[in-house]
Amino acid sequence: MSKAEKTRQFIIEKTAPIFNKKGYSGTSLNDITEATGLTKGSIYGNFGNKDEVALAAFDYNHATLSSAIKRKMEDKAHPIDKIKVFLDVFADLQYVTNLKYGCPILNTAIEADDTHEQLRLRAANAIDKWYKNIGGIIESGQETGQIKDGVDAKEFAGAYIAIIEGGIMLTKVTGKQDGINAAVAYAKKMLKELHP
């Protein structure tokens, strides 16, 4: 990695948690310089503008989340156990590095849906990948007889994602675990329905 690439990566790593907590609008250039200890000139010497920093921060946060899921899935053989990993990771986001302020997909989607098209598209793409990941696991499990036939993979993925993200949102807004606890309990019932 060149010095410029290291500096760029340093900026992304230091600002990713701030963007996840405060969002695009709430994160100021002063927040970025305070987090990195760099001058405005150094920031803009590595990124054209705040948009570029925000997009890179989202990509970093999403990659962190994806890596946490992938690591937990590695030792799971049964497809239902693999799908449960999403539930486990999202229910404990505060323990995933840089994600203690919640799901970067949810946080970005809520803020950027009407205000920042590039961030909205990043969040939409992340959700699409999530759908495909769960759907692929279900279809593979149906082929091996480990998941019952007749389960609509896309419909299940959509409901599962909505329940998890809804639970996270309720918990963030209220400051109480009731939302995520209810989401986890219901999602576990959904997982039982996958058994043949």
Structure characteristics:
mainly alpha, Tetracycline Repressor, domain 2, 0% strand
Report what the structure shows.
This protein has one domain: Tetracycline Repressor, domain 2 (Orthogonal Bundle). By secondary structure, the protein is mainly alpha-helical. The relative contact order is 0.11.
CATH homologous superfamily heading: Tetracycline Repressor, domain 2
Q: Termini, distance in Å? A: 50 Å
What CATH calls the topology is Tetracycline Repressor, domain 2
CATH architecture heading: Orthogonal Bundle
Write down the secondary-structure element order. Answer: HHHHHHHHH
Specify the overall morphology: elongated
Low-confidence stretches: none
Q: In total, how many domains does the architecture comprise?
A: 1
Query: Mean pLDDT, rounded to whole units?
Result: 92
Helix content: over 70%
Q: How much strand content do the residues show?
A: under 5%
Query: How many strands, which pairing sense, and closed or not: the largest β-sheet?
Result: none
Q: What is the alpha-carbon Rg in Å?
A: 18 Å
The CATH class is Mainly Alpha
**Counting H and I runs of at least 4 residues, what is the number of helices?**
9
Tell how many strands the DSSP assignment holds.
Answer: 0
